[in-house]
Design goal:
Length: 285
């Protein structure tokens, strides 16, 4: 999806700029967890160094929070596109889009400085076996031998602020969007407007539903649920579904894919014809 959007000038719009960065975040997110998890499952090597665990948790926090902020930026993009279409080219300029994406990464970096910092300053003198398939915050904190009340409070508060603020922003944006769509007199126009937001609402619901279930509730409550099962869903399944939900079901992306494959096929046929022509000329000589 990243290469497809970069290669097609028709997809150089704010929407696909955000989709490309969403694909980058999904790729980086899974790359933080999947390689080590696959080694653990297949080779049986489940050990990870202390610094390696801290590094994995750091990048996990960066990309998870950044994706939440990026989804909020995409909701703002859809709000401007539907509610203020005449101002859309000016409001969502290239510089504004770059700032929104940079702000998403900045928010992820702030989150990653706080959570791993509080987690890995604790004392770990007892068990060193994490009951998880990657270095997440709550399972790591549960191994600490020092008091973890402040750490749990900070993690719960920070996750609640990030999830709460971005989800509230998106709810307000989509409330305005739905209100604007319902005022469209044409049934075809309403259907087209709704179709531009359906995929993103599904992606947002899956992302925030799973992350809120994992992090925006007290630690004692999350221990009652199968944490690892839910973690597999939002670390692997959602990341694989995002391209299908947000991109591959999009008509413009399908057309871009067909055009790209057609160009490659044409180039291949042209190259083959050139080779055959050169071979024929060489035979005549």
């Amino acid at each position: 999806m990243i290469l497809l959007i970069k290669a097609n000038s028709r997809l150089h719009t704010p929407l696909y700029f955000f989709l490309m960065n969403l694909s980058v975040l999904d790729f980086c997110f899974t790359s933080t967890i999947t390689p080590k998890a696959m080694v653990s499952f297949l080779a049986g090597s489940k050990a990870i160094p202390y610094n390696g665990c801290a590094t994995q948790f750091f990048f996990f926090s960066v990309f998870l929070a950044a994706e939440g902020f990026l989804l909020a930026a995409m909701a703002y993009d859809r709000y401007i596109f539907i509610c203020n279409p005449l101002l859309y080219p000016i409001t969502m300029s290239k510089w504004v889009c770059v700032q929104l994406v940079a702000g998403s990464y900045f928010g992820g970096c702030v989150n990653s400085m706080v959570q791993p910092g509080f987690t890995f300053t604790l004392h770990y003198c007892g068990s060193n076996e994490i009951d998880h398939f990657f270095c997440d915050g709550p399972p790591s904190i549960s191994l600490a031998t020092s008091d973890t009340y402040v750490n749990n409070l900070v993690m719960f508060t920070l996750c609640g602020l990030i999830i709460g603020s971005t989800s509230l922003f998106m709810l307000i944006s989509y409330a305005y969007i739905i209100s604007t769509i319902l005022r469209i007199h044409s049934a075809e126009g309403r259907h087209k407007a709704f179709s531009t937001c359906t995929a993103y609402r599904i992606a947002v619901s899956l992302f925030y539903g799973s992350t809120a279930f994992m992090y925006a509730q007290p630690t004692w409550l999350t221990s009652l649920y199968p944490r690892k099962t839910v973690s597999v869903f939002y670390t692997f399944v959602i990341r694989m579904m995002n391209p299908l939900i947000c991109s591959l079901k999009n008509k413009e992306v399908k057309e871009a894919w067909v055009r790209t494959m057609g160009k490659k096929s044409l180039k291949s046929r042209t190259l083959l014809m050139n080779i055959e022509t050169k071979s024929a000329c060489a035979g005549l000589l």
